Amino acid sequence: MTAETMPRKTRLRAEILLVLTVTFGMSGLRSVLRLIDDLLAEEALNEQQVTLNVSQSEFPWLDLALQLCSAGVLFAWGGLALFLLIIDGVRIPRWRWSDLGWGAVLAAVIGLPGLGLYVFSVHTGLSKVVVPTGMAHPEIEVPVLLLWSLANAFGEEVVVVMWLFTRLRHLGWGLPAVLAASSILRGSYHLYQGVSAGFGNIVMGLVYGWFYHRTGRVWPLVIAHFLIDAVAFVGYTALGGDLSWLGL
Questions:
Q1: What is the pTM for the complete model shown?
Q2: HEC assignment per residue over the chain
């Protein structure tokens, strides 16, 4: 059997299985297992801590090189998804300046309530204490944090929204099922931060998924995701890690 003779739906199912296994599907499974391990620990969830961005070497130049390699994986995941769509004849929307405005709106719609949910969840034991960065080299910290913000945004929104939406629709799935699948996937790979992170990202997935369904545009989602992460990562650094104003 070749790709030309394989039934289209069989090929699409195989593509979905392989891409998700390589990318966010496996990340989701690992995250679920980590949450189970955390819940079984003696410490309460809100007494545990997770750091999102850490140094990978004691030498700044080598740390930067390793960070570039790690972030490059996410860019490659997004690139793979785009490539698979392009060779199948799917049109990729071009960038528009209006995407910036929509991105800012979506970032505010998700980011501000998300911050409130996080603070509430830490106080109620539904979330770990999330430390946005613990990097050891200040001279490269901000550029690396911005790099990771862009890598997360590009990889997640292209794969979890644009590619997955397109492929599931090609399989004949209805909109409610597609929204649920994309949102649950997004929530799953954030569960290592706590139960509330999974719930919050499911809501984010529903909002972003609905926007994509209505507009067919992925770039506002990438911009919104970048802004949310960049503000959280760089803002934490600018504040010197002091979150007492949030009651934490």
A1: 0.95
A2: CCCCCCCHHHHHHHHHHHHHHHCHHHHHHHHHHHHHHHHHCCCCHHHCEEEEEECCCCCHHHHHHHHHHHHHHHHHHHHHHHHHHHHCCCCCCCCCCHHHHHHHHHHHHHHHHHHHHHHHHHHHCCECEEEEEECCCHHHHHHHHHHHHHHHHHHHHHHHHHHHHHHHHHCCCCHHHHHHHHHHHHHHCCHHHEHHHHHHHHHHHHHHHHHHHHHCCCHHHHHHHHHHHHHHHHHHHHCCCCCHHHCC
